[in-house]
C-alpha cells in the first residue's frame, strides 16, 4: 500500500496534511503521535470511510488498485483490509458469549435461536488462528483485555485480509497479554504475509516488533526504524521524552 499526498479536512480544518508512506507485505508498521494527531482519521481514510485528497494505491496480486476519495477502487482488485477497533467495553454481567458475539458479527443467524454446529465450528476455527479456542463459550464481559483483543483480532481475520489495521491494540492489556499479542501479530504476519499497521502509545516495546515507525501530528514528522524515530529531535519535541539508543538530544 502506498499513500501519496493524502490530506483530510473537516469543517475547514486540516486534520491530515500531505501524508505519504509505503506499507510493504509482511511488514509491521507502528503509528505514533499525540492525541488529536489524526491517527484514527488516517485509518478511516484507508478503510474508505472518509473523503480525502491524494491517492492510496494498493498493489495486490493481479495489479495495482487505486482507492478513490468516494471509497471505490479502480485499476485493479482492491485487497481485503481487516480492522480491529479500540476495544469496546462489556458489562461483567452481560450474558453474551464469545460465540454469540462472533455469530452476530459474521452470520445472518438470530442469536436467540440455538446456534447450528457449522457456525460454532467456523467460530472455533477463527479463534484457533489466535490461539483462543478456549474462549468460545466465555462471556464477553468476563474477558481480560488481552482475551478481548484476541476475539476482535479473530473477527478481523475472517476472512484473512491482505492488510490488518489495529487501533490501539495494547490499550487495556496487561504486560503478559501485551507480550502474547505482539508475538501473535508477528506469527500472523509471517504465516499469512500480512501488512500490519497499528497505532500505539507504548513506545517501550516498539523495537521488539515494529519494522518501521511513523510519527504523525497532522503530517508525518519522522519515519524510520524504531530507534531512528525514538532518538529523533522530532520525537522529543512532540512528547518531551528521551528514548532510543541513538543518544540524548539537547
Describe this structure in words.
This protein is an alpha/beta fold. 30% of the residues lie in helices and 24% in strands. The protein has a domain at 2-86 and 163-239: P-loop containing nucleotide triphosphate hydrolases (Rossmann fold). It has a 6-stranded mixed β-sheet, with helices on both faces. Strand 5 (65-67) and strand 6 form a beta hairpin. Helix 4 (145-156) packs parallel to helix 5 (175-192). It starts with a strand and ends in an 11-residue tail after the last helix. The model has no long low-confidence stretch (mean pLDDT 88).
Question: What is the element layout, followed by pairings?
Answer:
Layout: E1 2-10, E2 13-22, E3 28-32, H1 39-46, E4 53-58, E5 65-67, E6 73-74, E7 81-84, H2 98-106, H3 117-128, H4 145-156, E8 163-167, H5 175-192, E9 195-199, H6 206-209, E10 212-217, E11 219-224, H7 226-230, H8 233-239
Parallel strand pairs: 3-9, 3-10, 7-8, 8-9
Antiparallel strand pairs: 1-2, 1-4, 4-5, 5-6, 10-11
- Strand content is 15-25%
CATH class of the domain at 2-86 and 163-239: Alpha Beta
Main beta sheet strand tally, sense and closure: 6 strands, mixed
State the separation between the terminal residues, measured CA to CA.
36 Å
Low-pLDDT parts are: none
User: Averaging pLDDT over every residue, what do you get?
Assistant: 88
Kindly state the number of beta strands.
11
Q: Could you say which structural class the secondary elements and strand pairing correspond to? A: alpha/beta
From the spread of the alpha carbons, the general shape counts as globular
CATH superfamily of the domain at 2-86 and 163-239: P-loop containing nucleotide triphosphate hydrolases
Amino acid at each position: 500500500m502506498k499513500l501519496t499526498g493524502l490530506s483530510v479536512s473537516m469543517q475547514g480544518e486540516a486534520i491530515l496534511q500531505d501524508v505519504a508512506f509505503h506499507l510493504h507485505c509482511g511488514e509491521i508498521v507502528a503509528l505514533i503521535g499525540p492525541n488529536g494527531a489524526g491517527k484514527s482519521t488516517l485509518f478511516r481514510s484507508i478503510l474508505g470511510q472518509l473523503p480525502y485528497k491524494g491517492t492510496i494505491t494498493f498493489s495486490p496480486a493481479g495489479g495495482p488498485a487505486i482507492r478513490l476519495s468516494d471509497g471505490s477502487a479502480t485499476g485493479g482488485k482492491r485487497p481485503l483490509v481487516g480492522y480491529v477497533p479500540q476495544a469496546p467495553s462489556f458489562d461483567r454481567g452481560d450474558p453474551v458469549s464469545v460465540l454469540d458475539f462472533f455469530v452476530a458479527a459474521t452470520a445472518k443467524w438470530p442469536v436467540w435461536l440455538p446456534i447450528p454446529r457449522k457456525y460454532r465450528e467456523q467460530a472455533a476455527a477463527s479463534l484457533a488462528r489466535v490461539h483462543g479456542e478456549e474462549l468460545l463459550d466465555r462471556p464477553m464481559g468476563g474477558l481480560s483485555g488481552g482475551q478481548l483483543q484476541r476475539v476482535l483480532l479473530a473477527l478481523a481475520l475472517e476472512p484473512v485480509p491482505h492488510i490488518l489495521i489495529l487501533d490501539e491494540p495494547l490499550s487495556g492489556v496487561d504486560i503478559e497479554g501485551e507480550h502474547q499479542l505482539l508475538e501473535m501479530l508477528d506469527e500472523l504476519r509471517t504465516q499469512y504475509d500480512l501488512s500490519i499497521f497499528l497505532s500505539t502509545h507504548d513506545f517501550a516495546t516498539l523495537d521488539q516488533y515494529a519494522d518501521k515507525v511513523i510519527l504523525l501530528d497532522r503530517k508525518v514528522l519522522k519515519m524510520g526504524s524504531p530507534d531512528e524515530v525514538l532518538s529523533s529531535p522530532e520525537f522529543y519535541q512532540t512528547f518531551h521524552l528521551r528514548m532510543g539508543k541513538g543518544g540524548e538530544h539537547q
